[in-house]
Write a structure and sequence with these properties.
The chain is an alpha+beta fold. It has 17 helices and 13 strands. The longest helix has about 30 residues. It is elongated. About 10% of the residues have low confidence.
Length: about 500
């Protein structure tokens, strides 16, 4: 049912048109979840610090959960799940910040800097004619040095007299270039300015580093229930607990646009989260939903530190500092609706025959099908009345369970298990209570031993009528994926510079 994929294509289109500048497009990617997870506005009360005093345990639980969701490092490009392997941004970032070696800027010279990107940036920052003249001599000198290195690397079996003659001519041209460089190319003055700019940049880097270290020390928390360390993380808008107080973007995809999107999109991108055979006979004339990108804010994280050449690190396992990409935004949607008035009766029979069946990451609820041919898609946990953490935990284990590099078989298996689990929960909720026997009185009553294990009771399933009536209240919005941002390779130390 690849009509579903047009939702994700439309979200991508909106992001790249309205959320970022064109020059940054290559750094970003949108990754969607195989299991849509529903939240209520109250699940985000942790964004309001005043709520901490009302229910401290709930407040800390939500802080931990959001930090893990927002800081999971996206490892896969075709699907996103929360990590259960401690792949959280704050761990490798903390390893870098706490154990890096700093450059000794007093030992820097232009010979070390030559060829490094920071040298070109500093040269461009000078501006004016002196920069252009210096660059002309610098380019000629660089080319001559490259020719010299190539001559020195030629095998000894070649004509050595010819190679020596070429080296002698190369040396003569280098000396002439350097003389002209000093006389007419403002060499010394320009290099003094370049070194000054780089040293000032190092001071700014050091100030950022000191600030970041301080934030890492003050913003760490330990969850009492699990003993897990995490770092306080927020988002903008920071009042998601008041979801109707800010603007959600209403998007409607008509029949023609659905066709156009299907024509141009790469369907293999969504193979892991959408089954093309699933509900393939379902008629769709329009799709509508409301969209919100929530930007992640981390006072303890500064990506510019990672891209700086002013640090290096000694470490045995590069995995301990690996951050190929990080989550920049969370993708929330709500009120997801399909509409096909002309195919009302066909869809009605089809949807009812697969009541509460998966439709990609969503669940189709047959109770929501109305007389206009409109039906809603809900999250897995809200539609099936399952605990949200159950859905997140199953997704977290996906990477370990999949085989042969394919996620789809495991995803499909888990969807079936979700539906089956919901059925068992529903049957338990509808089961009549057993008639209790009268308790015989004894001379002594035995105390029940206490236990530290927390037992979670199975939530009682609500009736179909109640669930249909209160669906909008139960599910404020759905987390459907993340926006990831790639980082440049690091570290990028300056060759032959001293790091201590």
């Amino acid at each position: 049912m690849f009509q579903l994929a047009t939702i994700f294509e439309k979200i991508k289109e909106d992001f790249f048109e309205n959320q970022i500048k064109n020059e940054d497009r290559e750094k970003y990617g949108l990754i969607f979840s195989p299991f849509s997870t529903g939240f209520t506005y109250d699940d985000f009360l942790f964004l309001d610090s005043n709520s901490a005093s009302e229910n401290a345990q709930k407040y800390m639980d939500e802080l931990l959960e959001f930090s893990q969701i927002a800081n999971t490092i996206p490892k896969e490009k075709n699907y996103w799940t929360i990590s259960d392997q401690q792949d959280y941004l704050f761990f490798p970032y903390g390893n870098i910040v706490q154990t890096l070696k700093l450059i000794d800027v007093d030992t820097l010279n232009t010979a070390m800097l030559c060829g490094h990107p920071i040298f070109e940036k500093a040269l461009s920052a000078i501006g004016g004619k002196s920069q252009n003249t210096y660059r002309m001599y610098h380019l000629k000198w660089t080319e001559l040095m490259r020719t010299r290195d190539n001559l020195l690397q030629k095998p000894s079996s070649l004509n050595q007299q010819e190679i020596e003659a070429q080296l002698k001519e190369n040396q003569r041209e280098l000396e002439q270039t350097e003389a002209g460089w000093k006389l007419n190319g403002n060499k010394e003055q320009t290099e003094i300015k370049v070194l000054g700019i780089i040293k000032d940049e190092f001071k700014r880097f050091l100030n950022k580093l000191v600030k970041t270290k301080g934030q890492l020390e003050t913003l760490v928390r330990t969850h009492a229930g699990t003993g897990s360390d995490f770092y306080l993380t927020s988002c903008t808008p920071n009042n998601l607990y008041k979801g109707d107080d800010f603007m959600w973007k209403k998007i409607t995809i008509g029949k023609e646009e659905i066709h156009d999107l299907l024509e141009k999109m790469k369907t293999e991108t969504y193979n892991d989260i959408i089954d093309s055979e699933e509900l393939s006979d379902l008629a769709v004339e329009s799709i509508s939903f409301e969209l919100l990108f929530a930007s992640i804010t981390r006072a303890w994280f500064d990506e510019t530190l990672l891209e700086s050449p002013f640090w290096d690190i000694n470490i045995l396992s590069k995995e301990d500092i690996a951050i190929p990409r990080f989550t920049s935004k969370l993708i929330f949607i709500r009120n997801v609706e399909f509409q096909a008035p002309e195919a009302l009766h066909v869809n009605k029979e089809l949807v009812k025959s697969v009541a509460k069946k998966s439709a990609g990451p969503f669940i189709i609820d047959s109770d929501s099908l109305d007389k206009t041919g409109k039906f809603k898609l809900h999250s897995v946990n809200k539609a099936l009345n399952l605990d949200r953490h159950t859905v997140l935990d199953v997704g977290a284990k996906l990477n370990r369970k999949r085989k042969s590099g394919r996620a789809k078989p495991v995803v499909n298996q888990k969807r079936k298990q979700f539906v089956a689990l919901a059925g068992r929960v529903r049957s338990l909720g509808n089961r009549k209570p057993l008639r209790s026997r009268p308790i015989k009185k004894t001379a002594r009553s035995r105390a029940v031993p206490s236990t530290s294990r927390r037992i979670t009771s199975i939530p009682r399933a609500k009736t179909a009528e109640t669930a249909s009536q209160k669906k909008a209240e139960q599910e404020s919005f759905q987390l459907i994926g993340v926006v990831s941002k790639e980082l440049e390779a690091f570290p990028t130390p300056i060759k032959n510079a001293d790091y201590v």
